[in-house]
Structure formats: C-alpha cells, structure tokens
Amino acid sequence: MTEPVPPTRRNRASLTYKLRYAAKNPDKIRPYLARTARDLKLRVTSRDHVAYYRAVMRADAAKSPEAAVGSPTRERWLRLGKMQFDYLVKHGLKPDDRMLEIGCGNLRAGWRFIDYLDSGNYYGIDISPDILLAAQDTLVRQELAGKLPHLTLVNDLTLRFLPSDHFSVVHAHSVFSHSPLSVIDECLANVGRVLVPGGFFDFTFDRTEGAEHHVLREDFYYRTETLTSLAERHGFTARFMDDWEALPHGQSKIRVTNPA
Ligand SMILES: C[S@@+](CC[C@H](N)C(=O)[O-])C[C@H]1O[C@@H](n2cnc3c(N)ncnc32)[C@H](O)[C@@H]1O
C-alpha cells in the first residue's frame, strides 16, 4: 500500500492529485468546473491579478461575505476570527499598538482588534469594495463605530498614502495564500516604511514542501524559504511561527520584524 501524501507535499495543481480528488469527491467536480470557467473568463477580462481577485471577491461576497473570506458558517467565521485575535494577543499585541490589517475582509478578526485597540488605532485595507461594505455591516453589528476604525480600498500594496514609521503591528491573514509572488514582493518592499523600528508584520501562507504551485489564480502555495528569504532581502528578520502549526488551521504563519 502506498503511504498517504502529507498535506505539505501535495501538489493540488497536478493532474494526478486532481484525478484522485475527483474520484474521492465526485460532488466537488461541478463546483470545480464552474470555478475553472470563471477563472478562464476573469483571466481574459482582468488587467492584472488585483482586478482578477477583486472580481472573484465580488462574485463570492454577493453570495455570502462570510464564505467569501473562507468561513462557510457564521460559527466558523467567529471561531477563525477569535483564533487570529487570541494568537496575536498572546504574541505581543497591546491596546496602544497602531495596527494595519492588510486584506481585512469583512473584519472576521478585525472587529475583535478594533474592540481591543485604543480608538483610532486600527487601519484595515482591502482590494474589494464589496467586502469593505460588508466590513461596515460588521462594525454596525458589533457596535464599534465609536472606536473610529479606518477602512480603505486599495489598488496595490505600495501603501503610499500611509505615513512612515507609524504602525507597530501589521497583520495579513489568508491574503498571501491568494497572491502571486509579485504582490507579496510589492508588499514586503513597502511595509517596512510604514512600520516603526522594531515593529512586526505577521502573515499566513499556504505552505508546500514540494513544488511551488497555484490552483487557478486563487490559491498559491509557497515554500517557507521563498518567503523568509524574500523578507530578508527587504531588510527584515523572519521567523516561522512554530506554535501556530498546532492550531486547527491549514495555513502557516511567518513574523517579519523591522530592524530596531
Ligand atoms: C480569505 S480573505 C481573508 C480576510 C481576512 N483577513 C480574514 O481573515 O477574515 C482574503 C482577503 O484579502 C483581500 N485581498 C486579496 N488580495 C489582496 C491584496 N493584494 N491587497 C489587499 N487585500 C487583498 C481579499 O479581498 C479578501 O478580503
């Protein structure tokens, strides 16, 4: 009998993987074909990856904002947000931190950060107008307008409209898992400027220990060394967060720290 392939060695883009998966999950074939058709259409009609992914979010958020950020039920949306929040508080987030959340979505974790941080200290950015409208609904539902959070639509990750040496914490959950390397490179090239000396940036990514690959233009798999060495080239120290691995979440986490 052949050994099962560990998750981090799977290549979801390979034909063998797809055929095996289809045989085991026949109910997933139709949704996959629909996503493939959408992928083909959006590749042709979108000028770049951001436009492509914005269109994906538009379609997904119209069905359910919770599902669009990756949580099929409200209960899982709450649980996943709490997991991010608890981890970050355990790893140094303080109420007086000034926080930038990249790809804040509909504030799955963001509303907890806003509630915890001093007023005005949360800044969320996203490429999707549709999910930012859903983020406003979350703010209203959680009665957090008084904390004066900032929510801003962006077209890229140059962060050029934000001040230098301002944020002590930057957070991006399940964003680089949907990003080609050029987008991650742009982010790492610019985030150091807005971070204070000694400030840190935590991000999750879909990790592979095999070949780097992507599924459609939606899910991207990277080796840890690719991202840590990219961060080091941009002047950060980078640390793989081992204890995140123990949590029930499919992605891995890296913390990059600005020189003090
Ligand atoms: C899977 S959702 C996660 C949202 C949020 N971080 C959370 O944990 O609920 C990914 C989010 O990142 C946003 N996004 C994707 N690429 C982005 C980019 N290059 N810049 C900013 N936001 C991006 C998407 O629009 C979406 O809202």
Automatic annotation (TrEMBL):
In this protein, which residues make up the domain named Methyltransferase type? 100-201
* A GO BP entry: methylation
Give the molecular function GO annotations: methyltransferase activity
Keywords annotated in UniProt: Lipid metabolism, Methyltransferase, S-adenosyl-L-methionine, Transferase
Presence of keyword Protease: no
The cross-references to SUPFAM superfamilies, in alphabetical order and at most eight, read: S-adenosyl-L-methionine-dependent methyltransferases (SSF53335)
* Family according to the record: Belongs to the CFA/CMAS family.
Record protein name field: SAM-dependent methyltransferase
